[in-house]
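Inputs:
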Amino acid sequence: MATTLKEREVVVVGGGLSAGLIARRLVPLGRDVLVVERGAPRSGSESQLPSQRDELRWGIHRGLVQRENVETYTLRHNPDEAALPMRRLLSFLPGFGVGGGASHWNGQTWRFQTTDYVLRSHLEQRYGKAAVPSGMTVQDWGIRYEDLEPHYTLFEKLFGISGKAGNIKGEKQEGGNQFEPWRSEEFPLPPLEPSEAGIIFKSAAEKLGYKPFPMPAANASRAYSNPDGMKLGGCQYCGHCERFVCEANAKASPNLLLFPLVVGNPNFELRTHAEVFLINYDKAGRRVTGVTYIDTQTGEEFTQPATTVVLGSYVLSNTRLLLLSSIGEPYDPKTGKGAVGKNYCYQTVSNVSVFFEDRYINPFMGTGAYGMVIDEFNNDHFDHSALGFFGGAFINATITNGRPITARALPPGTPRWGSAWKAANAKWYLRSFNISCHGTSYSHRNNYMDLDPDYRDAYGRPLLRITFDFPENDIKMSDYVTQKAHEIAKASGASIVGTPAPRRGPYDARIYQSTHNTGGTIMGTDRATSVVSPHLQSWDAQNLFITGASVFPQNSGYNPTGPVGALGLRLADDLVSYLERPRFL
Amino acid sequence: MNNENEKEPNFGRRKFLKGAGVAAVSLPAIVASQNGEAAHPAPLTHLAQAQSPAPTPPQAATPTVPTSAGYQILSLDEAAFTEALVDHMWPKDQLSPSGTELGIATFIDRQLAGAFGQGDRLYLQGPFRKGKPQHGYQLALTPAQYYSSGISGASAACQKRFGQSFEKIAAGDREQFLQDLAGGKVKEGAVDLAGWFNGLVYPLFVQGAFADPIYGGNRDKVAWKMIGYPGLPAVYKQDVVRFRGMPHPRSTNPQSIQDLS
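Outputs:
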């Protein structure tokens, strides 16, 4: 039997980026905020030399990531198959512990395009209603870019994003992204130093008439103090970002920039080792009353009453908690009815390798967003009339790392072992890089999440079942953009160009692609087709708010952290207003 | 020169190093040699001469991990198979000593005996069903049990085909056998041997070669030296400009966790 604790004002589930942004806003106003986090505080070994630089521990064995033996996901490729558990989580890396995924991310920080928020309206308007395939369930968000712009600006300032503007209030800026949505200000920090790979990519892209620009980075190009007075060191280009906690305090994360602001305040508590398994729901009253969790150190159950609950855990956990708590109607792909679990999307990535006899790439001098990018073939930046697909990708040369177990590209035809394989590693490790496509993932009627009927977590609760494969639209998109990347590779002067590898199904759970899972608790203006309102308020419980990439109705060609940050800041403002006068916003 | 490190004493590496009490002698020397030098380009040979030998601690002259005198979990037959396998896949040649000399067999043994091999993190609840390859590993075995099952099947197949165990057959036969194993053409015993080789053995082999030597493989950082990976401490704020497009002096003189401990 669960012990019932004293009621708290705002309980946030999940101690990651969203929780940090909300606490930062509410705690100084005197609001009582409790963040419940399933993982532990960081121990130190993940961020100290020399143990931080251990590829086997953090990179291969994924020491900072959700443990599969406690909770994993099941996978099937369409609704007619039986799902099997991902017994190891290899293709994406859900965060675990204070800071969540935003403590072991790469730092690639974008604003979603203006068309992303109105995707269905935009595509129907530009290409006609009949042009959007019937299985493609893309939706509008119910907000516009203008609603998020100030929050993007603040998020970039708080996180000290390094970059070069391409469009300040409609004025195009030389050297920046010519396709970016307008921004009110320049980036707070100048771009990172270009890499040798970036210089090669830039020259090849310019030869083909494109406008390359440095990737926006949360790896600080120099020491920085944000508007809250929180500080970042300058990036050391150590090549240990994704899967690692930054050793130099140079990668923006909630642990560095958000939680230290509020920890120690009497009206703030960060409660770790607290695994929430239920949001307590008064269906008749259309309200939530709190959460129930297990103290993972003692096994004891606690019910934590709350006047307001914010679900700010990972995409997959947000969706699963709603399903476990019977809040809202689960999505059914047969009827198209229900919205919880709907529009699960991912990221459609691909690449081509290039090898240079005479150029030192030195991939070990890298950082998570150390990229040169073109945006000509992303989203709807090009005419799709005759192409047979929608969406696109940014194409980039990004030296995230040269960690030797995994970061060794080899030319086609190289044997997998033996002296020739050794010699190829010796020859090409320092002299190769990937040109990659980071592509859209558009929702499809058959791609969704629900509770698995067979498999359970360590606490006996059903696992989340993911039904997903790359839709035909995204396969065609990947073919197209990978061909464009191949053209850049051929123009780069490379001694050898690898075989282009466009994304193909079935979705392969053995291969890391990105931790850019989206959807499941999507936002919108129609309660029949969305889970939360444009203000991220549950249609089924007025005092429940849900945030994170789980509210994206489909995924853009950009990385999701920028909009997750902007949505979190906007929700924080909305909560200020809501707590003053609780109502449907 | 844009010497950012000097401006950020509170947030640079030094605070961490000082706070942790790590490598009080060797580390600051490395930091100084990397960040304290003038940034104007000097001939590469000078830099290499100036930097390479300085920070090497005395114990690095001896092997970083004691040479293994035995195995924790592998049986004699399994050890013989494993040593023959890693010596074939990582042969002694002009680039390096053999896989066994590199410690790859020791690495595999230690991994199987340790947390990974005993199924740490692995979701091992049933029901157990056969999936597509894209579902990933679906057996009820721990990696250590799986390794044993696979060796047993592969060894039986080898006996049938060549009349001898894997470590006794000729190099050409070993090559053909491994190609067939990886390509799904060897079927023997309970487990799918292609899945076993590609999903368990090959990754362990690569990790044993390239992981930090603290785990028993990559002895003396041989594989890092071979490819030019400089290892630790990896503070390149100045170097991204100074050595952009040029050989980095540390590529020939990598440092490992033990060197900085």
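Remarks. Residues 561-580 of chain A form the longest helix (20 residues). Chain A has a mean pLDDT of 97.
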